[in-house]
Design goal:
This protein is α/β, with parallel strands linked by helices and 327 residues long. The chain has 2 domains: 2-123 and 296-325, Alpha-Beta Complex (Quinone Oxidoreductase, Chain A, domain 1), CATH 3.90.180; 126-268, 3-Layer(aba) Sandwich (Rossmann fold), CATH 3.40.50. 33% of the residues lie in helices and 26% in strands. It contains 12 helices and 15 strands. It has helices spanning 12-15, 42-49, 117-120, 125-137, 154-165, 177-186, 199-206, 221-227, 252-258, 267-273, 275-290, 304-315; strands at residues 2-6, 16-20, 30-39, 65-73, 85-89, 100-104, 108-110, 145-149, 169-174, 190-193, 212-217, 231-239, 261-264, 298-302, 322-325. Helix 6 (177-186) links the parallel strand 9 and strand 10. Helix 2 (42-49) packs across helix 12 (304-315), helix 4 (125-137) packs across helix 5 (154-165) and helix 10 (267-273) crosses helix 11. The longest helix is centred in the C-terminal third of the chain and has 16 residues, at 275-290. The radius of gyration is 19 Å and the shape is globular. 50% of the residues are buried. Keywords: Oxidoreductase. Residues 11-325 form the Enoyl reductase (ER) domain. Its EC number is 1.6.5.5. InterPro entries: ADH-like_C, ADH-like_N, ER, GroES-like_sf, NAD(P)-bd_dom_sf, Quin_OxRdtase/zeta-crystal_CS, Zn-ADH-like_protein.
Length: 327
């Protein structure tokens, strides 16, 4: 089969190589799937660079999220039939940027019939992250105002749709006019191009000085620091990640004085410690997809030859919506 593999760490465009390799075999508790589509995520770029929280042995195939067709079930796997259309996370080092990938059986979920393969491939990591951030961690309530950073990106775009589906008012922050168009198309009530406007001033004016009830922050750095200037009394800032490359050092005295909460979200821990919550979130996301309330915005479909360049563009912040690999 064909696969894009990393033999040494570096920039995605430099280290992702298209090769012919043997098709992997599922071990106990694993499932082999034929990849129908694989969404590109920021962790894929970090994996190439050797900067992700897990480091698979070299060489490996990235691709952490996919929609596929079950080809073979490993020892001890029950209830997952060959031919089933599924989605979920890939088991590295046999990731989804290939014709076939491995998945842990406990992380395999039915793909919604209401979504195409490329959309279903994008429903897992970003939307699960958004669901847990907004509902389990922040306790979002209808009518609240949500400030979403990187609103045109993978997790940000999911947060915009999920917040709207929950009855919230959404302010999306983006970098550039094309990304602003994307955030508006996703349903954001107000879109702020951070290159041209100050989102702090916009949020305060929109809310009559109250501020945002929930801040969804996958960026960190200056985005986090400025968000503390416009978070509401009893507001919640959910720390998703640090795409800016700068990890904030919050002033806890400021959180005390303004009565807001700083909440961390490491979604992967739920898979380890409370997997039933991940299955429940998938059921809710499927319902929302079937009702047309969430739909991943796939902006570009890439074949194997163009995938390395696509991962690089995502790493450089030059993409909108979701990039999806289709073998």
């Amino acid at each position: 089969m064909k696969a894009l593999r990393v033999h040494e760490n570096g920039e995605p465009a430099d280290v992702l190589r298209l090769e012919e390799v043997a098709t992997p075999r599922p071990g106990p508790g694993q499932v082999l799937v034929r990849v129908r589509a694989a969404a590109v995520n920021f962790p894929d770029a970090l994996l190439c660079r050797g900067m992700y929280q897990t480091r698979p042995p070299l060489p490996f195939t990235p691709g952490v999220e996919l929609c596929g067709e079950v080809a073979e079930a490993g020892e001890g796997v029950t209830g997952i039939e060959p031919g089933a259309r599924v989605l979920g996370g890939a088991d590295l080092p046999a990731g989804a940027f290939a014709d076939y990938a491995l998945m842990s059986a406990d992380g395999v979920f039915p793909a919604p019939d209401s979504l195409g393969d490329d959309e279903a491939a994008s429903l897992y990591i970003g939307y699960q992250t958004g669901w847990f951030a907004l509902h389990r961690r922040a306790g979002l309530r209808p009518g609240e105002t949500v400030l979403v950073h990187a609103a045109a990106g993978g997790v940000g775009s999911a947060a915009v749709q999920l917040a709207k589906a929950a009855g919230a008012r959404v302010v999306g922050v983006v970098g550039g006019p094309e990304k602003a168009k994307t955030a508006a198309a996703l349903g954001a009530d107000v879109v702020v191009d951070r290159h041209a406007e100050d989102f702090v001033a916009v949020v305060k004016e929109l809310t009559g000085g109250r501020g945002a009830d929930v801040v969804f922050d996958p960026v960190g750095g200056e985005s986090y620091a400025r968000s503390t200037k416009c978070v509401a009394f009893e507001g919640r800032i959910v720390v998703i990640g640090f795409a800016s490359g700068t990890i904030p050092t919050p002033g806890l005295n400021h959180a005390l004085i303004k009565n807001y909460s700083i909440l961390g979200l490491h979604w992967g821990l739920y898979r380890q410690r409370a997997p039933e919550t991940v299955a429940e979130a998938h059921a809710r996301l499927t319902e929302l997809a079937d009702r047309g309330l969430v739909k991943p915005l796939v902006s570009e479909r890439l074949g194997a030859e163009g995938l390395a360049a696509g991962v690089q563009r995502l790493a450089d912040g030059d993409t909108v919506g979701r990039l999806v690999f289709t073998p």
